[in-house]
Design a protein that fits this description.
Length: 379
């Protein structure tokens, strides 16, 4: 894969080169791509290797899919590495689990270019983009989170339209749309998943049970109500007044839905109505006590939002307690750590604040707020 220290070079490989004997229909008139490290003058023809050529082809598959010879390169690559699909898929999934997103992306993009009709690879790209969005959301990098959320949405859109349908795409898309608070769409794709799966495999049975539970939850909480969706959409668009109208109307009919109280608090907090917002978040947590498993997915966000309101009300001790509670659940959530730093600054505890913002930079070196605050504090 290409980076700042690598370059792509095309050469025509002579027929006497050992590699050509392995390739049916080898055409010496078509140049092969090499991926090289270092400066151009460092390359010598005698140092040519199969690995250089294969790496060059992977680069083409990932980033230059309009290359006129790409079909020829695909044939060569599949001949030389017949098990590459499974090998690279396993490697990419491992990289995603280890949060090595850049390398996972390179691997999956190369696979997509090598097997352009392979829908499981496209589904893995959707899962990768979803994971990246989740990571940046927790990092407080909203622009990056929005970018990768959109990428995930586009990828899911493609795999959900696949023929024949891919059941796993509908199952995973359900979780994606739940995170986006698009509960009507989440319910729809999960219902489609249940219609598609017929296997009695143990893992499939567990997924079917989970999908059914989520559908029941959405229905019993009325989260597929258009009022709820409208409120969320208005908040996303920065129209908090309209959001409040929708969510209050929803709460008249469904007063015990904790998700709705969270939306209410969120809209009020964005209007800087700190006291009203804090009361909404506290009520949200109180209602959530009866649904701890459901609340778990949003618990840190609720605690963080509540802590921000309390901080603005100068109720510093209460704010700290909620931030610490959230941090116990997600120790590397840099939004929480940043807010602990901000709280320390408001209390005049400069050294304590520096320590929090240093931790943020250790976890996420690109964080602009932490770097700015540390620079302002003389570091």
């Amino acid at each position: 894969m290409e980076n700042s220290e690598q370059r792509l070079l095309y050469i025509k490989v002579p027929e006497e080169y050992a590699l050509t004997a392995k390739i049916p229909g080898f055409d010496s008139s078509i140049p092969l791509p090499l991926l090289l490290s270092g400066e151009k003058e460092d390359f010598r023809t005698e140092s040519l290797s199969e690995e250089m050529i294969l790496a060059g082809m992977l680069n083409i598959f990932a980033y230059e899919r309009d290359n006129q010879h790409i079909a020829y390169y695909r044939d060569i690559f599949k001949t030389l590495r017949p098990n590459i699909h499974d090998e690279m898929t396993s490697a990419a999934i491992l990289k995603i689990k280890n949060a090595d997103f850049d390398l996972a992306e390179q691997l999956l993009f190369a696979l997509e270019g090598l097997f352009p009709e392979d829908m499981p690879t496209k589904l893995n790209i959707a899962l990768l983009m979803d994971e990246r969005a989740h990571f940046y959301e927790h990092a407080g990098a909203e622009a990056y989170a929005d970018y990768y959320t959109d990428k995930a949405f586009q990828s899911y859109k493609e795999v959900l339209a696949a023929e024949p349908p891919i059941p796993e795409a509908f199952f995973n898309a359900g979780f994606f749309f739940i995170k986006q608070k698009n509960f009507p769409k989440a319910k729809s794709v999960l219902e489609t998943y249940l219609q598609l799966v017929t296997s009695e495999d143990e893992a499939v049975i567990q997924r079917k049970q989970k999908a059914a539970e989520l559908i029941t939850w959405i229905e019993t909480q009325a989260l597929d109500d258009e009022l709820f969706k409208g409120a969320f959409d208005f908040i996303q668009m920065g129209q908090e007044d309209k959001a409040l109208e929708k969510i209050r109307e929803f709460l008249e009919h469904h007063p015990k839905v904790w998700n709705a109280w969270f939306l209410l608090g969120w809209a009020l907090r964005r209007q800087e109505r700190w006291q009203d917002a804090s009361e909404a978040f506290l009520h949200c947590l109180e209602l959530g006590k009866k649904n701890k498993e459901e609340l778990a997915v949003a618990y840190c966000d609720i605690c963080n939002e509540l802590a921000i309101c309390l901080m603005e009300l100068s109720r510093f001790d209460e704010s700290r307690r909620w931030l610490i509670t959230a941090l116990e659940q997600e120790p590397e959530n840099i939004k929480i750590i940043s807010n602990l730093g901000t709280l320390a600054l408001k209390e005049g505890k400069t050294e304590e604040a520096k320590a929090f913002f240093r931790t943020v930079v250790d976890i996420y070196p690109e964080d602009p707020l932490a770097r700015e605050v540390l620079q302002r504090l003389g570091e």
